[in-house]
Amino acid sequence: MQWTSIRWIPGGDNILSSPLRKDASELKAIVLCAGKGTRLRPLTDSIAKPLVPIANRPVLFYVLDQIVQVGIKEIGIIVSPENKHQISNAVSRAGQWPCDIHYIVQKEAGGLAHAVTVAENFLGSCRFMMFLGDNVIQGNLSRYAEQFCNDTSLALILLKEVDDPRLFGVAELGSHGKVIRLVEKPREPKSNLAMVGIYFFSPDIHSAIKQIKPSGRGELEITDAIQWLLDQGKEVNSQTVCGWWLDTGKKDDLLAANRIVLEEFAGRDIRGQVDAASTITGRVEIGSETQIINSIVTGPVSIAGNCIIKNATVKPYTSINDGCYVDNASLENTIVLGNVSIRHILYLKDSIIGNHTEILGKADNTRQIKVFLGSYSKLEID
What is the pTM of this model? Predict the structure, then answer.
């Protein structure tokens, strides 16, 4: 699968974009990508969760964009034995980041703090940034890196106001954004500030992790390690982000992320062939060698290369990856991965379709369908 469509340039949030005053370039970063993505099965049975695309580009690539924009030159990607080669091959093929990228194997799921321990040799005595590999966040993060590099705190965590904080790790704050307490998924939360999965740490976090025990689910929790620092009277700061934050761990979250990224970053870039009987409206990206035949495409939409879209209607918030064939079908708010064939489907909406999948209806089909299909599937509709 080729990842060539949208090139994301993070912005917004009035974030400082000037060079960092001190040593942000000496920060390292780790990206946590070893999870199995069970909430996105069956899609993640054949594709690593961080490589699931939004707007025709893997979630992981957006994460790497933001880390490099901060000025970090050395990144460790925490992978599992099962997804190591898939992730490293995808990143290597893309070749878009001017930094050194290392792959660190986490042999078994042991929690976020365990991932930090696995990366300890890579991190050494450096301060570092930790980014969950399935999160997408709006804005340039340089401001937060600058704050961390120029204060005396041992950790800086990013927070976001949420409607239901019971679903997240929650921070309770004192004056000037200083963290007092962290609680994982509290029944009665004392704030609505959720941790968004982006952290800055000093090397003191390694000592903290060595002092904690596995939680009830058998994992070393990063919230417990940060709380240990707080219990020792150490300074932990926070910043609340203003823009959107997307956790792409479930189907509906993935569709929401696709909508938001298309809305914000899709442009009009038509590289394929569009015949005279077709209509292209709005911000639509069409990759090279793609043919649009007797079809209507209304943006924001991203269609990758080597596709045939024939007698079709492609409505907003749809992403179609490379090598797809769509004939006599209508799509809206849908993510289609590579080498998919969709024929004679009146209305496919709010759906995710895995690689090498075939969906076949009949010429007189009048059904609206919503599906979530893993790779190498076949669906026939009478």
Answer: 0.86
Rounded Cα distance between 375 and 272, Å, is 26
Residues whose CB is less than 8 angstroms from the CB of residue 152 and which lie 6 or more positions away in sequence, other chains included: 235
Name the packing angle between helices 204-211 and 222-231 (round to 10°). Answer: 100
Q: CA dist 353 to 88, 142, 211, 322, Å?
A: 24, 35, 44, 13
278 is written with which tokens?
Answer: 């077709």
The CA distance from 108 to 28, in Å, is 23
Q: Where are the domains of the chain?
A: 24-154+195-215+237-262, 268-380
pLDDT in tens, 118-159: 999 999 999 999 998 888 888 888 888 888 888 888 999 999
Nearest to 3 by CA among 301, 351, 304: 304
Distance CA 331, CA 312 (A): 8
The CATH class that applies to domain 268-380 reads: mainly beta
Q: Which CATH architecture has domain 24-154+195-215+237-262?
A: Alpha-Beta Complex (3.90)
- Give the pLDDT confidence of 278-301 residue by residue, as tens digits: 999 999 999 999 999 999 999 999
Q: How far apart are CA 269 and CA 286, in angstroms?
A: 6
Pick from 244, 293, 238, 280: nearest CA to 265: 244
Q: Tokens 């703090």 — which residue?
A: 113
| Angle at alpha carbon of residue 187, lines to 184 and 190, rounded to 5° | 80
Name the β-bridge partners of 193.
161
